[in-house]
Amino acid sequence: MTAPRDKFGRPIVVVTGMGVVTSLGAGKADNWKKLSAGESGIRTITRFPTEGLKTTMAGTVDFVPVEPFSSTDLSERLADIATEEAVAQSALGSKGDFPGPLFLAVAPVEVEWPQRLELGRATGETDIDYDAILRVSGGGQFTQYHRRFQFGSVADHLAGKFGTKGSPISLSTACASGGTAIQLGVEAIRRGEADAALCVATDGSVNPEALVRFSLLSALSTHNDPPQAAVRPFAKNRDGFVMAEGAGALVLESLEAATARGAKILGVLAGCGELADSFHRTRSSPDGKPIIGCVRNALSDAGIGPEEIDYINAHGTGTPENDKMEYLGISTVFGERTGQIPVSSNKSMVGHTLSAAGAVEAVFSLLTLEHQRIPPTINYDVPDPAIPFDVVPNKARDARVTAVMSNSFGFGGQNASLILTREPV
Amino acid sequence: MNQLKSNSAEVWITGIGLATSLGEGLEANWDALNARRINVDEKGFAPYIVHPWAPVNLDTQIPKKGDQRQMEAWQRIGTYAAGLALESAGVKDNKEILGRMDMIVAAGGGERDLRVDCNILNLEAKGNSGPGFLNERLMNDLRPTLFLAQLSNLLAGNIAIVHGVTGSSRTFMGEEAAGVDAARIALARIAAGQSDIALIGGSQNGERKDLLVLYEFGGFNLKGKFAPVWTRENDAGFALGSAGAFLVIESKVHAQARGAKPYARLTSVVADLAHRKHPGEVRVSLENLWSKLGKLDSPGAIITGATGAEPVTSEEVAFLREHPDFAVRSTGTMFGHTMETQFPLGIGLAALSISRGSLFPPNDPTGLEVEMSKPPTQIVVVGAGHWRGEGMALVEAVK
After folding, report:
1. Residue B67 touches chain A, beta carbons under 8 Å
2. Catalytic residue, candidates A175, A199, A272, A294
3. Are B376 and B300 in contact (CB under 8 A)?
4. What is the pLDDT of residues A36-75, one digit of tens each?
5. pLDDT, tens only, A91-118
6. Which residue from A263, B100, B204, B320 could staple onto A258, CB 3.0 to 4.6 Å apart?
7. Closest by Cβ to B166, choosing from A159, A277, A301
């Protein structure tokens, strides 16, 4: 019988349900099969014309139809799919009655081009300004767009559908959002506010303006052909990240509550760390201190040393900057062991699922623990001598894995790290 | 770290930063409230009414012009107000504290470049609709850094860059409820010993036609002539407000150790989500929250962020009428509706009123707001979102 509290006297937080959807497919089984086979979900964009774009591929989820398309509608659908899988696996509560709060990582919401063009047409004018748009926006013909484009609308939908309790929290810490959603759930359970929490992260952002925005910041890969080879984390010829869509959902519970109801425990959320970077809006501090501090905070929150980590699920976006800084951060903390710890990037296959990435990769980390098999970093043909990680190149590897660190870093100086283990530490 | 303490820590409000349509700083806002002065613009966005931000010298809180240029108005307003809060708490430039200070920002985002939008719409209206048309215009017309001024978490990012708050950085979204939850989670973390000190708050620029469009979809904008919140029943809606409101909250132990004086104690913050499918749900939700606040002494006071939107405002009025011993004040009348910022603004005004020993005067022809002569020792802050989300906070005098 395991003690229900950790070495700091806090309730131990475990995972009892997981769901995932990415460009590789819907559900853990399909995703794991393809992930461990080293398959890529990146494809040429067909959702909208790509003429005039420098980047023409993405990890879109095209098998979930949304018509007319909006990124917020797709985010909501993806969150539904992942949450249904997670809640069903946990068998916690009853249908539409989840006994805990919702923490949702979701991309910032705004009116999108299909809707804006619709408004423009509704003016009937050819000299359109925002006053003309305002004149046609009211009167009830676009009422549904108010709800759709409220930042809280996806969380409101999920809270209603799954019956979570209290005020649902929608959050953004950019590309670290998924990690933050999980951290909020862990903290709520540790405070004793809840026995269970639903942590969901979703992103359906592949639309023309979102793609152009990242493109203008020179953040995206332009290795368009073949798209499957575009994401090259830690490789010398990496040239940017690839936008992708997906969702991850985790049901967290206190070990005590999960044990009491005889739930199957899928893993332990042993620690969470965060630290903000004040150096620059899109770049990490060159000394790596915020990343180093974030990783150390996660280890210290879990109460373990770096020697106990035997796999790192990297942020690994494939941008020249991120991968270099991630190496600096990890090698500083892990010292001489750095080259011996497997460090792989799921993003080499599923792309960068942005707001969802932290949760998607937490699910993959837990599947790594379950299967004792490390998914590879694909497209690793030209090693970067400046980043001598063991990236588990191109082929999955069987390994003994007891503790995983999963990192997420984002624009705006966001850093979050999670420690996931098979058993309580 | 994150050690669970056996007793819940007392949490103090030690810093308040306000930069609103009524002015910059506590004195200017306090004076305007007491003079019942409201700053509205009925013409610039006619027929819509907005509360314009009172101009400030940005350089005093955002010294680098380069930083100012990297932000859109909502971020400048918020970063400015955050600086005021840090100054008020006496931690400005205290690298040791700022480096471990937690931050939860309640944010919207997405300020559009209206010129770019309209150019594309006009070209489309004139027949430009080839497959690459939208892509080419966006690639050519969008400023590369505009995205960073639109991202919700970049208000927090800018506060980290300009003021050095780096312990943690979390951004909550979701309109009014985001402001409630920012306070709720920060308080819970400090009370449980997961954090010692936090910066919380939000900002909004109400002078935005793209934001007016979003609320016009649902018919939420106040039009024509300004009227106090409680008189809008037959002409419902809100006037978008412009404000930054930030608070520094910390454990009593932490405040005492550094010799900081409290404005007030933040005793509890509670929140819920009524699905609003049936009439009366909001009123019930508010009553439930009221019962969870802790011990309330009457007569007392309520500062509410009631929006003026219907049916939620009428339900809130029904709730308020159940508590006639509490003097009500509406921030919506005085500041307009600042969305995510309204609840932190309410907490700030509650703490300010308690520290000044008086509640600011009513400004309401309907008589719902009544005079309060005695110094308030408890103020309940109420926030019922125009569409979703209900929250309450109890702010008390430090004993």
Report:
1. no
2. A175
3. yes
4. 999 999 999 999 999 999 999 999 999 999 998 999 999 9
5. 999 999 999 999 999 999 999 999 999 9
6. A263
7. A277
Are the beta carbons of B251 and B196 closer than 8 angstroms?
A: yes
- Yes or no, beta carbons of A134 and B213 under 8 Å apart: yes
Q: Are A212 and A112 in contact (CB under 8 A)?
A: no
φ/ψ of residue B107, rounded to 5: -135, 150
Angle CA B64–B66–B71, to nearest 5: 105
Give the closest-approach CA distance of B259 to chain A in angstroms: 26
Domain B11-112+150-396 has CATH 3.40.47.10: yes
pLDDT given for residue A250 in this prediction: 99
Break chain B into its structural domains and give their ranges: 11-112+150-396, 114-145
Instruction: Please indicate whether residue A223 is annotated as part of the active site.
Output: no
Strands A246-254 and A196-203 turn out to be antiparallel
pLDDT tens readout for residues A245-258: 999 999 999 999 99
Q: What is the pTM of this model?
A: 0.98
Among chain A residues, CA nearest to B48: A134
**Residue A294 annotated as catalytic:** no
CA distance B72 to B244: 13
Q: Is A199 a catalytic residue?
A: no
Nearest to B252 by CA among B262, B240, B242: B262
Q: Which residue in the set A49, A120, A276 is minimally distant from B160, CB to CB?
A: A276
- Close Cβ partners of A169 (under 8 Å, ≥ 6 residues apart): A101, A102, A103, A104, A155, A184, B172, B174, B178, B181, B185
Domains and CATH numbers, chain A: 13-109+150-417 (3.40.47.10)
